[in-house]
Amino acid sequence: MPAVNLKAYLVAAIELFRVSDDADLTRAQFDAFSKQIPLLYFILISNTIAVAYTYVNVAPDWLAMIVPSVLTALAALRTFWWLRQRHLVRSDADILRNLRATNWMTLPIAAGFTAWSFALYPYGDPFAKSQVAFYMAVTVIGCIFSLMHLRSAALIVTLIVDVPYVLFFWATGEPTLKAIAVNNLLVSGAMVTVLFIYYRDFADLVASRKSLLVQQAATQALSDENFRLANLDSLTELPNRRRFFAELSSAFNDAERRHVSVAVGIIDLDGFKPINDNYGHSVGDRVLIEAGRRIREVCQGFGPQRVEFARLGGDEFGLVVCGDPEDADLERLGERICEQVKLPYQLDTAHTGLSCSIGFALFPRSASTAEALYECADYSLYHAKRHLRGRTVIFSSEHEAEIRSRGVIETLLRTADFSAEMDLMFQPIVDAMSEHTAGFEALARWQSPRLGWVSPADFIPAAERIGLIRPLTQALLVRALAAARTWPDHTRLSFNLSAHDICSPDGILPLIAIIEKSGVPPRRLDFEITETAVTFDFARAQQSIAALKAMGCGISLDDFGTGYSSLSHVHRLPLDKLKIDRSFVADINENPVSHKIIKSLTGLCDDMEIACVVEGVETRAQLDSLRRLGCDFVQGYYFAKPMPGAAIEDYLAREGERLDAAHGAKVVA
């Protein structure tokens, strides 16, 4: 039996003498072992002192006092060293090195205490000798339990102590000591078996914990990735709208707590929709990606403020400017962004150019909540696009007054009686060569019982915002056609349509019904549309224009030259007239550039076989220049200001007299 167990111990010791190379298992062993090793040395020291005390007056002093003192001092030093390890952060390599060192140190320590015990044994009486046997048996059992997390060290102690112990006491021939030796061998064998089972379970527990941690890490990584995707714009890989408003809320709360300023900015790319129309969505996407990259670089390099940047959707981007910014900081940031966005975009064979408008609002000056601050920035952007396109606008007290005024207009417009409060004025469109009136443009006017006369520049956009533009258009068209029915048959009516009229799914059908019911031939009608309306939904606009053309109506492109893809629209739409914006006419005789632009546009109209209408003619000199450039029709205060429908008959009569007089003068001459 002893031989069999000794062989098993030797095989196990050789196999397990090396500490496992599994980093997680090794670290777990070290953590558990470092907590139990002081207990091992406590058992060893206390038991050694008890045995030494028994032999003080029996054995020589060097054996009863000096040797045990050295051994206990060594054990105490090791105890102190291990207690220090609890507070140190060690690397995996350092832990592995310490555990291997512990294995090697276990060998001389176990051998030293065993040799001392055997050397002490002969000096005692039977009771003292029994204490040595008890000391060795109990101490080795305690050490094995204390070393259970480092089974290689536990096996070394078992081999170094138990094998000599069994052989030594078996050799005494004393039946009691032989029985103790055999009993100790059996108990040690059972403990080693328990040790193997425990170590296996401990390793499985560490492995399962590692697997759980891996699963948790994978779950966390998946959660982090889902969070990232949920807050990332898939096209530009910028933070998306959700992330923007989360950043805005956080920055706003922080600024409110610290009593500092924070700003919100909204960027809109001017002229992006025509890029999609002209070059396709793939090119448009690449322009968005490039524009986003440029703006992000500006934001990252802008200091000392921190700028959070996100794509809000479409061609709109958002900014949150932290770090107590001032107006000058926002203007500088907006200027840098505009400069970068304006740079050319070269994509394959397409060279695209665009600009951007930016609206800023500053807390606490502009608003007291994050939501209101964003709305103020949005209004600043709206103001920039209407009046300062391609520039930066910071929300001010004037804008706040405009918002209040706009709110009043929208409220009153919702309750307005269109038939009683809305009116039409008509401005002549004159043949440039004969100076004969070819038609009239209908211009809407609103006399509110509360506000008085309200400019179309104010109430038309308000009607579009609150969804009343279509019923307003229909009511005004009915009145315009009623007036046109009283005019000479050759006199045309020019009527403006909004983006909502031509781009909504059924917006054009009520207008067709009104035309058919009016009794006015469709050939006498010209519908004016703006480039902005066309770009709102180009495909839908094409369908609506085609339907009006099929009836016989004419189509005019208004404010030509102020958009971003005019030539594209001229080429792709069935136009009858182009209306050149008044901004080119004011200085036609002083500014060679304006003269050249109108000359080019009239030449374009001639080549395209469409009529050219020039707005804003106020002097005879302007009219003469336009006639020399080949303009077909003119419109402006030189001939007449907008007039009510009742005044048209007198106007036409006076015009007839004037033209007859001019013709008579030519005949006499």
In short:
The radius of gyration is 48 Å and the shape is rod-shaped. The protein is an alpha/beta fold and 669 residues long.
Commentary on this structure:
The structure is a single chain. This protein has 669 residues and is α/β, with parallel strands linked by helices. The chain contains 24 helices and 17 strands. The strands form 3 sheets. The protein has an 8-stranded mixed β-barrel, surrounded by 4 helices. A 5-stranded mixed beta sheet has the order 2-3-1-6-7, sandwiched between helices. α1 (2-16) runs antiparallel to α6 (151-171), α6 (151-171) runs antiparallel to α7 (175-230) and α13 (397-414) packs across α15. The radius of gyration is 48 Å and the shape is rod-shaped. 36% of the residues are buried.
Number of helices: 24
Fraction of residues in β-strands: 5-15%
Radius of gyration: 48 Å
Write down the overall mean pLDDT: 81
Structural class: alpha/beta
List the helices and strands and how they pair.
Blueprint: H1 2-16, H2 23-54, H3 61-85, H4 92-120, H5 126-146, H6 151-171, H7 175-230, H8 241-258, E1 262-270, H9 272-279, H10 281-300, E2 306-313, E3 316-322, H11 327-342, E4 345-347, E5 350-352, E6 355-363, H12 370-387, E7 392-394, H13 397-414, H14 418-421, E8 422-431, E9 437-448, E10 452-454, H15 456-465, H16 469-484, E11 492-496, H17 499-503, H18 508-518, E12 525-530, H19 531-536, H20 538-551, E13 554-560, H21 566-572, E14 577-580, H22 592-608, E15 611-615, H23 620-628, E16 633-635, E17 643-644, H24 648-668
Parallel strand pairs: 6-7, 9-11, 11-12, 12-13, 13-14, 14-15, 15-16
Antiparallel strand pairs: 1-3, 1-6, 2-3, 4-5, 8-9, 8-16, 8-17, 9-10
Helix pairs in contact: 1-6, 2-3, 2-4, 2-5, 3-4, 4-6, 5-6, 5-7, 6-7, 9-10, 10-11, 13-15, 16-18
